[in-house]
Amino acid sequence: MEVEHLTVRFGDHLALEDVTLAVPAGAFVAIVGPNGAGKSTLLKVLLGLVPPSHGRVRVLGSPSDKVDPRRIGYVPQFKTLDRTFPALAEELVASGLRRAWPGRLTSGERARVRAALERVGAGQLIGRPVSRFSGGELQRVYLARAFVRRPQLVMLDEPATGIDVLGEADMYRLLEDYQKETGATLLMITHDWEAAYHHATHVIVLNRRLIGFGPPERALSERCLREAFGHVGHAHGFSLALGGERRA
Ligand SMILES: Nc1ncnc2c1ncn2[C@@H]1O[C@H](COP(=O)(O)OP(=O)(O)OP(=O)(O)O)[C@@H](O)[C@H]1O
């Protein structure tokens, strides 16, 4: 991904200002920043959903609005997942294979859906309605949907919000396994600095402008965090993590 001098305006409001960065293929990138910092806007620009007001954005070698969305896996914010949606897990995962809502699946598609669910440890959920799933189960099904085409780029919007600590650990393991197997690039918005520190290879610290970008030890420096958030996160016990070994 290459972002050059990206500025996004919504009317008079400047959501992103002159952001320039290049993410190497195969990186696991965490985007951190306070509420309203422009994190989701950056993701939407990369997905080709919001046009840049100024600047240039290339994703998977093409301008972001020209990339086939099926080459990108997307996991929405947990809090916006619809639990009442009248679908089976199989159909929800299959919707990642086709641009339209799947009708009857071919046997090849069904096999791919099954493999994607098994990869995330959710093979047994295939014929069950998503409306009855727990948070962790639903999260797995959405991961399977993002992985089903084996995309080279996976974007995740606060994927751990609302799932418990065990579910969260599982999710990072699944992401890391997928990345090892496919060499894909992962891009994740998170409010959890420790997760960014321990799992990401690169961190983007954003507050409308790019405050920091690089390996977690450098981007999550006290200076960058103070500049972006106005504090260094005692609530997260993050000052301890800064001195600790990275887990991943
Ligand atoms: N479609 C839109 N029209 C007008 N303003 C918008 C639009 N989308 C985002 N904004 C504004 O742009 C700013 C950045 O929003 P964005 O959703 O990118 O922030 P964020 O960093 O993802 O925030 P959060 O952590 O709260 O999810 C906010 O002030 C938001 O109100």
Automatic annotation (TrEMBL):
EC top class named in words: hydrolase
Keyword terms, alphabetized: ATP-binding, Hydrolase, Nucleotide-binding, Transport
InterPro entries: AAA+_ATPase, ABC_transporter-like_ATP-bd, Metal_Ion_Import_ABC, P-loop_NTPase
E.C. designation(s): 3.6.3.-
Gene3D superfamilies noted in UniProt: P-loop containing nucleotide triphosphate hydrolases (3.40.50.300)
Superkingdom of this protein's organism: Bacteria
GO molecular function: ATP binding; hydrolase activity
Chaperone keyword on record: no
Presence of the UniProt keyword Glycosyltransferase in the record: no
Pfam families in the record: ABC_tran (PF00005)
Sequence ranges assigned to domain ABC transporter in this UniProt record: 1-233
Protein name: Zinc transport system ATP-binding protein
Organism (species): Oceanithermus desulfurans
